[in-house]
C-alpha cells in the first residue's frame, strides 16, 4: 500500500447522489430512542434502520392509521 495517493484526476461517482439524499426530519424522542436501542442490539446504525423500515413501508404501500384526539 502506498503512503500517498493522487486523486487530482479522479471523478465523482455520478450515481452517488441518486442513491440517498440528506434531509431534515423531525422525529419523536420515543421513535429515536427505539431505533437507537434497536441499533445497539442488531449492530446497524439507527439511521440505516429507519431508512430500511421506511423503505419497507413504501414498498408495501403501507398507510398510517391516524386517529386524531376525540
Summarize the structure.
The protein is an all-alpha fold and 70 residues long.
How do the helices and strands line up, and which of them pair or pack?
Layout: H1 16-19, H2 29-42, H3 46-59
Helix pairs in contact: 2-3
Number of helices: 3
| Helix content bin | 40-55%
Task: Note poorly predicted spans.
Answer: none
Question: How big a fraction of the residues is strand?
Answer: under 5%
Give the number of DSSP strands. 0
The oligomeric state of the chains shown is single chain
Shape: elongated
Return Rg in Å: 19 Å
- Distance, first to last CA: 66 Å
Q: Can you give the mean pLDDT?
A: 92
Structural class, from secondary structure content? mainly alpha
Give a short account of the largest sheet: none
Q: Order of helices and strands, N to C?
A: HHH
Structural description of this entry:
By secondary structure, the chain is an all-alpha fold. The protein has a domain at 24-59. It has helices spanning 16-19, 29-42, 46-59. α2 (29-42) packs across α3. It starts with 15 loop residues before the first helix and ends in an 11-residue tail after the last helix. The model has no long low-confidence stretch (mean pLDDT 92).
